[in-house]
Design a protein that fits this description.
alpha/beta, Leucine-rich repeat, LRR (right-handed beta-alpha superhelix), ten-stranded mixed β-sheet, 2 helices, 11% helix
């Protein structure tokens, strides 16, 4: 009789798991963090508000795996307000896209605790304050885009610790100071955007370490000095924009012989007679600086 009863209990538990297990559950801590996000960012006014009485796995843009929130895609969803510190409780998050919204205020420090993040997209918001120096703790990050905000202060040296980065776009903010030489440690980087800030000084020679770089956009700043010779080591470069700066000379650009740059923009001076040798500009086009985001679903 005991064996029959035990089997019945096991079978009942199996049925309950089968019926309700289809709804991935998350911890109360993670659910509370999501609700904080929803309330802080005026969730009821979102284009696609969450049905908070349903399981978390049914909430639009929330990806759940292994009973943890691993993805959050709220692209262009009319988010308004400041990110709460409790976002740091989503500590299994790998993908976070909050781009093209109306998020304001400073970034919470707890965001830098999300050390599983691979993609962080915060562009086209109204975020202000400085970029936390702790940002370098996000060692697994491959893509970090925060262009078109109001971020001020210096670019943190700690970015140089994010050695898995392939895409880094800090364009159209209010960054000041110089390009940290530590960015030369990002040897996997393929795209670097620093367009339209208040950056000064010279381009660090360490940029030459970024041999996988395909896109380098430094236009509309206050850079000066000479273009470093090490830029000639960027054999993969396809897009190179340095116009609207205060460079003293472009002579080192002669190293771009035997190249096919798809986009190449600089301010040609009458006394800077550059011999571009075999560089093929027949396929080049003038820069069309615009910002797009394909992750709209």
């Amino acid at each position: 009789m005991k064996i029959v009863l035990q089997n019945l209990i096991i079978y009942t538990a199996f049925c309950i798991t089968t019926i309700f297990g289809g709804y991935a559950q998350v911890s109360s801590s993670e659910k509370e963090a999501l609700l904080d996000l929803y309330n802080n960012l005026d969730g009821q006014s979102w284009n696609q508000p969450w049905k908070i009485n349903e399981p978390v796995s049914n909430w639009k843009g929330v990806e759940v795996s292994g009973n943890h929130v691993v993805g959050l895609n709220l692209f262009r969803n009319n988010l308004k307000g400041q990110l709460p510190e409790s976002i740091g409780k989503l500590n299994k998050l790998r993908y976070l896209n909050l781009a093209f919204n109306n998020i304001d205020g400073a970034l919470p420090i707890s965001l830098t605790e999300l050390n599983h993040l691979i993609v962080l997209k915060l562009e086209m918001n109204q975020i202000n304050g400085t970029l936390p120096t702790e940002i370098g703790k996000l060692r697994n990050l491959k893509e970090f885009t925060i262009f078109n905000n109001f971020i001020s202060g210096a670019i943190p040296e700690s970015l140089g610790k994010m050695k898995n980065l392939k895409i880094l776009n800090l364009s159209s903010n209010k960054f000041e100071g110089v390009i940290p030489s530590a960015l030369g440690n990002l040897t996997k980087l393929e795209s670097l955007g620093l367009f339209e800030n208040g950056l000064k000084g010279s381009i660090p020679s360490q940029i030459g370490n970024l041999t996988r770089l395909k896109e380098l956009v430094l236009a509309n700043n206050e850079f000066n000095g000479d273009i470093p010779m090490e830029v000639g080591q960027l054999a993969s470069l396809e897009i190179f924009q340095i116009q609207n700066n205060k460079f003293d000379s472009f002579k080192s650009l002669e190293q771009f012989s035997s190249r096919e740059l798809l986009v190449f923009d600089y301010d040609m001076k009458e006394d800077d007679k550059i011999d571009f040798k075999e560089t093929n500009f027949s396929k080049s086009r003038m820069a069309d600086t615009k910002f797009e985001d394909d992750d709209n679903e």
